[in-house]
């Protein structure tokens, strides 16, 4: 999950800069990544900044908005577009809407107007993100079904062999044999087995991600997974970490057998049977779990998709600066969880907990929480009743909110100090909120909220005031020309500098200089 990126295309500098200010101060979940004064310049910026949303005027020199949107639709058909227009240009705007523009923003516009269209864009952006994630899950599910069918020598659709051969080219296969012997009667119910499979899958994928190793894990039979990685990529320390984590967190023994480089799809079943015989001989005293893995694998995919969905909802609230609504969202999730059956409740609780941990890892402190940061330190036990599962889930939510609050308190002061220092050193340059946020490794929308809370001013207001104070100092103590002072404090257009200065001091720079006797 990431925040949305906006490209603003507008030939009036004052209006363009005003839009940038509104967007970056408003904590809308969007960050301005580029500005252009005409359609031609904007087209050149597209590949560089890769926006998710374009705000474009219609009446512009060189290439107007209609021509620009026409080009966009041919090269970037899914890019979100909002049209900026005056009432006199409404007919043109209607033509642009026929080109697929999401909405209109009528000039002059208020902050509330901007908020409304950006909220609409946010809803569409996150809706598309959810659809993309759902499509990815469906594609992964189909790929896994085809691979499982080949391993178990089951019928498959026409074309599956070709797709599998392309996917498995230069891939290495590993068999993960699970040993449930130490769990005794804890996995008598299918739901408890599914809980353990889901947790094991997430632990393995988290460790691979932490080791920067691409891989995919397939549940073939209930006590056997097949892991697909790049050739020579699964190092011994990663394999050992998987074994240790599964034993520590789940009480499950895992033995890993190399299946070598993936053969042609028609040879996979023979290879799988051979490795199964090897693993069975090595663990002859272990009672295997006989039931096939097809239904369980489908449930596993649904659980993983739900993690992504919950994570998206959590991060969306944080990215938009809606920290207050986060508690309400989590409470609603707990209510939904309480209405499920016991087995569904256990899986749902673990799913929520994993989503919370993933959000912490990605949004708060990447890399600080260890290799299995996406896995909770414990999990709902298989012998828990409904009340105990709900208590456990509520504790996970409480810990998440405490961690969020603690992180905000411990980091905000130091981070804002660093931001202010960066502003003081770079105020003479183009200085966007997203640039400063990147320097302190924060999401721009969250940084905007944090900055205003710490300083009492929005980022843009703070930078503007700082620049005007520097400009006033130069007007009092130097004979620099006004356009030189404007440039020295980060304004490339003297007229815009003069307008901003007058807003701050209720007089023009020239009047201010005359008043101070320079």
From TrEMBL:
Compartments it resides in: Cytoplasm
Record InterPro entries: CheY-like_superfamily, Homeodomain-like_sf, HptR, HTH_AraC, HTH_AraC-typ_CS, Sig_transdc_resp-reg_receiver, Tscrpt_reg_AraC-type_HTH
GO biological process, one term: phosphorelay signal transduction system
GO molecular-function term, one example from the UniProt record: DNA-binding transcription factor activity
PROSITE patterns: HTH_ARAC_FAMILY_1, HTH_ARAC_FAMILY_2, RESPONSE_REGULATORY
Record keywords, A-Z: Cytoplasm, DNA-binding, Phosphoprotein, Transcription, Transcription regulation, Two-component regulatory system
Database matches in Pfam families: HTH_18, Response_reg
Domain of life: Bacteria
The UniProt record lists the keyword ATP-binding: no
GO CC annotation: cytoplasm
Chief location bin: cytoplasm
4-aspartylphosphate modified-residue sites: 57
Domain Response regulatory: 5-122
Protein name from the UniProt record: Response regulator
């Amino acid at each position: 999950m990431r925040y949305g990126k906006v490209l603003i295309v507008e030939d009036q500098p004052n209006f363009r800069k005003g839009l940038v200010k509104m967007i970056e101060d408003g904590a809308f979940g969007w960050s301005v990544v580029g500005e252009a004064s005409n359609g031609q310049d904007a087209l050149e910026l597209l590949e560089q900044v890769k926006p998710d949303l374009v705000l474009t005027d219609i009446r512009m020199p060189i290439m107007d908005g209609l021509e620009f949107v026409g080009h966009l639709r041919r090269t970037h058909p899914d890019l979100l577009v909002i049209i900026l227009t005056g009432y006199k240009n409404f007919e043109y705007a209607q033509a642009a809407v026929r080109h697929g523009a999401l909405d209109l923003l009528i000039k002059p516009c208020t902050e509330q107007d901007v908020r409304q269209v950006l909220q609409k864009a946010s809803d569409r952006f996150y809706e598309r993100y959810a659809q993309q994630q759902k499509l990815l899950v469906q594609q992964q599910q189909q790929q896994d079904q085809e691979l499982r069918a080949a391993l178990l020598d089951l019928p498959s659709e026409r074309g599956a062999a070709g797709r599998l051969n392309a996917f498995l080219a230069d891939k290495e296969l590993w068999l993960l044999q699970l040993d449930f012997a130490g769990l005794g009667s804890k996995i008598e119910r299918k739901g408890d087995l599914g809980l353990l499979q889901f947790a094991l899958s997430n632990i393995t994928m988290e460790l691979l991600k932490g080791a920067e190793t691409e891989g995919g894990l397939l549940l073939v039979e209930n006590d056997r997974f097949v892991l697909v990685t790049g050739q020579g990529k699964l190092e011994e320390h990663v394999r050992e970490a998987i074994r240790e984590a599964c034993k520590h967190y789940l009480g499950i023994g895992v033995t890993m057998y190399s299946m070598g480089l993936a053969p042609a799809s028609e040879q996979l079943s023979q290879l799988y049977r051979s490795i199964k015989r090897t693993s069975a001989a090595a663990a002859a005293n272990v009672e295997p779990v006989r039931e096939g893995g097809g239904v369980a694998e489908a449930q596993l995919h649904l659980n993983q998709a739900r993690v992504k969905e919950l994570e998206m909802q959590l991060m969306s609230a944080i990215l938009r600066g809606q920290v207050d609504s986060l508690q309400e969202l989590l409470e609603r999730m707990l209510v939904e969880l309480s209405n499920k059956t016991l087995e569904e409740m256990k899986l749902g609780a673990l799913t929520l907990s994993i989503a919370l941990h993933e959000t912490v890892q990605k949004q708060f402190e990447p890399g600080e929480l260890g290799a299995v940061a996406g896995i909770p330190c414990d999990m709902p036990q298989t012998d828990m009743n409904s009340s105990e599962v709900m208590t456990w889930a509520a504790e996970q939510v409480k810990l998440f909110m405490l961690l969020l609050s603690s992180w905000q308190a411990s980091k905000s002061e130091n981070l804002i100090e660093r931001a202010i220092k960066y502003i003081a050193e770079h105020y003479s340059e183009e200085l966007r909120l997203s640039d400063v946020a990147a320097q302190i490794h924060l999401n721009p929308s969250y940084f905007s909220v944090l900055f205003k809370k710490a300083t009492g001013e929005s980022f843009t207001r703070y930078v503007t005031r700082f620049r005007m104070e520097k400009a006033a100092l130069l007007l009092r103590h130097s004979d620099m020309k006004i356009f030189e002072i404007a440039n020295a404090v980060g304004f490339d257009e003297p007229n815009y500098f003069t307008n901003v200065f007058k807003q701050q001091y209720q007089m023009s720079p020239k009047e201010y200089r005359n008043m101070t006797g320079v």
